[in-house]
Amino acid sequence: MIVVALFVFVFILFAIGFLYFWGINPGVVTVFLTSEQSFTLPTAIMMICVLLIGLLLGNGVHILSAVASSLGYWRGGRRRKKAEEVSAIYRSGVGRLLSGDLKKARSLLGKALDRDPKRVDSHLALASVAEQDGNRQEAIELLQKARKLDPKGIEILFKLAVIFQDVGRREEAMGVYKELLTNDANNRKAMRALRDLQIDLGSWQDALTLQKRIVKATSSGPRVEDEKRQLLQLRYEVARTALADGEAEQAAEDCRDLIKRAAEFTPARVTLGDAYRQLKRDSDAAQVYQDGYKALKKSVFLARLEDLYIGAEDPAALLSFYRSQMQDDSDDLLLKLYLGRLCLRLEMVDEALQHLIDLEASGIEFSQLHLLLAEAHRRRNKIDQAVVEYQRALGIDSHLSLGFVCEVCGAKQDEWLSRCLECKAWDSLVLPERKQIQDAKPVEGPKAIPHGQRDD
């Protein structure tokens, strides 16, 4: 009732206003539709008509907008409902995937993908199913489809690159990592993965260039020192490659710089000496090897010195260096070992025995030492002692025990055990040469005569 009364009141006000407006505007308005057609209306009527037309147009636009909005909301509701259904199927599929039910996961995720072929996460999850199922080619195809839907998707590109690596398609993996870096130039994970691939391929200069970027991007954190160490190692590999390519001067220059930066880095010292030898600067090479041993006490320097001096038929110089070093450090057992071996090679058997027996008395126990002692005793015609040392070198006891080895971790045991003491694997101890014996084929020939029998 109130609404009706209000409407009547408004109508009365409108009528009064209309009559008042008409009363003070008695004129007429002529409107020409064409040059020959026209119509004439009172001014008040014309104004009311214009007002009504405006109201009709405004309300029409409003109604159309409301209809369009309602239609869009209806369609959006259907899309949301479909998306919710697809999401529910997808979540169920992922749950099955995580529980290890690959068959059911494949069915559910395939259904989700059929309902929404543009859903990237369904492609990714189904690719994981294919990968776990051992079908990497199918995984690659699914990831390629996802890549078309989302060309810059980091997860897609990383997963694709890893599978390419797993199947040995390293060049394609490198291409994907490069694409990742095009989209995200400072992605350290991609840079490291690409660097490792370049290292595997022996592309040392490319790996070094990339490592410089990695070091620059890794300004803080626990990996800083590791990345700097990797940079040093890659610089060394570039220098070593230069030496292999005959660029000895460049290799020597790079190694000298490396030694300045990291004096404890053995490969740089060794390669510097090798570069000098290639340049026919044997005295410089010998000095590098000698300094390297004095600083780092690594056997590789003694081995290089032996190769240099014996090759130059100058063992006296090597012997002199060994003896002078022994005077400086009589407790250097590594040098004593090499000195004993050198004396043995030079038929200085008594001195060799003295050094080798000193080593054995120090509690050192390894097969090469026993072999050297056995050879020294043999050359002194002490056959019994030589045999004992040979047995020690070969690990042979009085029962001629062959021992056992773990097939899983390689640990050695004197007695058979049901479980390896090192890796805890069950039923893994076998004869060390078992596979070699199993794979060998008996030699065909005359049948051997059993022990104790003879031909009649």
Descriptive report:
A hairpin with a 5-residue loop joins β1 and β2. The protein is elongated, with a radius of gyration of 45 Å. The strands form two sheets. A three-stranded antiparallel β-sheet has the order 4-3-5, with no helix packed on it. It has a two-stranded antiparallel sheet with strand order 1-2. Among the domains are: 8-61, no CATH class; 402-439, no CATH class. The protein is mainly alpha-helical and 456 residues long. Helices cover 71% and strands 4% of the residues. α6 (154-166) runs antiparallel to α7 (170-183) and α13 packs antiparallel against α14 (299-311).
Task: Give me some keywords for this one.
456 residues; single chain; 3-stranded antiparallel sheet; 71% helix; mainly alpha
Please give the structural blueprint:
Elements: H1 2-24, E1 28-32, E2 38-42, H2 43-99, H3 102-115, H4 120-132, H5 136-149, H6 154-166, H7 170-183, H8 188-200, H9 204-217, H10 224-244, H11 248-261, H12 266-278, H13 282-296, H14 299-311, H15 315-328, H16 333-345, H17 349-361, H18 367-379, H19 383-394, E3 404-406, E4 412-413, E5 429-430, H20 434-439
Antiparallel strand pairs: 1-2, 3-4, 3-5
Helix pairs in contact: 2-3, 2-4, 3-4, 4-5, 5-6, 6-7, 7-8, 8-9, 9-10, 10-11, 10-12, 11-12, 12-13, 13-14, 14-15, 14-16, 15-16, 16-17, 16-18, 17-18, 18-19
